[in-house]
Design a protein that fits this description.
With 168 residues, this protein is mainly alpha-helical. It folds into 2 domains: 33-121; 123-168. It is built from 5 helices and no strands.
Amino acid sequence: MIGVEYLLIGIAVILLFLIYYIYHKDVQNAKQIRRIAMAVETLHKELYLLDKKLSRHIYDTPLVEENAYGDETVHELETRIEKLSQPLMASVNEMRSALQQHREETEHKIQTLEEGMRKLSLPTSVSGMDDARIIALYQQGVDISGISKELRLSKPEVEFVLKLNKIR
């Protein structure tokens, strides 16, 4: 009789420890996800500002007024325009290459962040097979509680899989 009581107490302690551990891991994962989301948002803002700067630079370039050169021939005007536009084109090309490089760096950072997200540990009861079944059932119109009952998973696990796959 006393052995059974100790066994029940031991099981209760183990369950409490597991609940605490799962909660602690969930909090850590949520913090990591928030940090990653903030980093991605910052990268998008930087990309937007660079695009805006390039557009403003192109828009602010002065245009040549009509008849500003009097009776010069068309050939002379073309030569002058070409000479004047070379530094501008070089500047635009330089900004384009800087923007392209920044985009590539941003895409690389996003890929790195996505790989980091994949490495985050998922709850052990949710596997790739469960993910596919959860998604299929949800798309068939089964509600979250029905999915959790059928697959013997908790509702938060089902919601987590749907959020992770951007379905809900």
